[in-house]
Amino acid sequence: MQHPFRQAYDSEITFLDSDETALAALRQENQQLRTKEAFLNRLLMAMTLLTRHRSLASGDLKNALRDITRMAALSVEVQRASIWFLDEARTDLTCACIFDSLESLHGEGARLLARNYPAYFAEIERGRVVAAEDALQDPRTCEFAEGYLRPLRISSMMDVPIKVGDRLIGVVCLEHTGPCRAWQPEEQQFAAFVSSLVSLVIETSERILGLTGAK
């Protein structure tokens, strides 16, 4: 039979071990909360800075899109952020602006034909967010595998529709390279905010051009 003092000692050790485990879990949770808070603060700051860019109110669509894609890529920490517009016949998407954070360069002009990517085009026509964690396997984006995803080493992508009024005019696209990435709700909300900014910029540009034309 174990001595009563020994039993008490063992119980105390067990309690201390349990307490240390709980403290370690609490520290980890606090660290995760701090990381999450920093992440949210970064997105909020990006949203604030974007709305203050002069290009967004100037009617200069090209520079506005450059500012938006750069801020989007850096804020969500993806390699590329781009804005694509549908043609009037809705048969293709043309890249109006893309920012590559690795190269720190802007580009434009790439074109995607609807007939080559029917599943993807059908999804965006429905006005849905395409948040593909594994873009190579996701049925909405796997059509891009050979001609787009693999050559550019894209593992995850998120596309958000751009609408002016009720009219679908294009998409904002965020492209992640490296290990597959699960898109957080806050990142999807930020991408939706970026999409709304693009709509606002287009409306502002059209209004200023209309006023200039009237004169």
From TrEMBL:
<protein>
    <recommendedName>
        <fullName>GAF domain-containing protein</fullName>
    </recommendedName>
</protein>
<dbReference type="InterPro" id="IPR003018">
    <property type="entry name" value="GAF"/>
</dbReference>
<dbReference type="InterPro" id="IPR029016">
    <property type="entry name" value="GAF-like_dom_sf"/>
</dbReference>
<feature type="coiled-coil region">
    <location>
        <begin position="16"/>
        <end position="43"/>
    </location>
</feature>
<dbReference type="Pfam" id="PF01590">
    <property type="entry name" value="GAF"/>
</dbReference>
<feature type="domain" description="GAF">
    <location>
        <begin position="60"/>
        <end position="212"/>
    </location>
</feature>
<keyword id="KW-0175">Coiled coil</keyword>
